[in-house]
Amino acid sequence: MARSLEQEREQRHGCPAGPAAVDAVSTLALAALLTSWDRRDLDRRGAGDIWTLTVQEYLQSTRSRRVAYRLARNPVMLFAIAPLYVFVIHHRFSAPTAAQRERRSVRLMNWALLATALVMSAVIGLKALLLIQLTVSAFAGALGLWLFYVQHQFEGAYWARSTDWNYMAAALQGSSFYKLPESYNGLPAILGSTISII
Length: 198
What we know:
Blueprint lengths: L4 H9 L6 H17 L18 H6 L2 H10 L2 H15 L10 H25 L1 H27 L14 H7 L13 H11 L1
């Protein structure tokens, strides 16, 4: 049964309108997050985004770019291959333009992961380690990408050019309220913990 935003607020806050302070803080926190990632700014796409083209951009693209775009947004690629690539390979390297501190942090993390993998391989064996680690990485990565995708890729989502971009509109129209079944309420927190460990 679909519930209105007012019904959701009433359940969360215990009153029909909900405390204005809680709503204001939530909106400001979301706006602050949007300033550092997921801007929904068509002129500054890239880091952390799922590749998104406007209809006009898609139609003006070359045939090879359209094929690549459709392949990248294919569910098998998006939820099976991409999560393993992103979490197991891509994040093991810093960007060429990264600051020295970030490069050092990535190198230290890689050394720590290598040391942990060597110790775990000695304890349980390389095959068992790879089976466990790749299964968990694939599952957690696919769930994380799926949650991000369904909350930010929907018809009517906020996207604008830099000149027309607005923090409040991006905060209020740039993501959806995704109602999970009662038994899944802790899933985003568990998933976040799992991905941060990986």
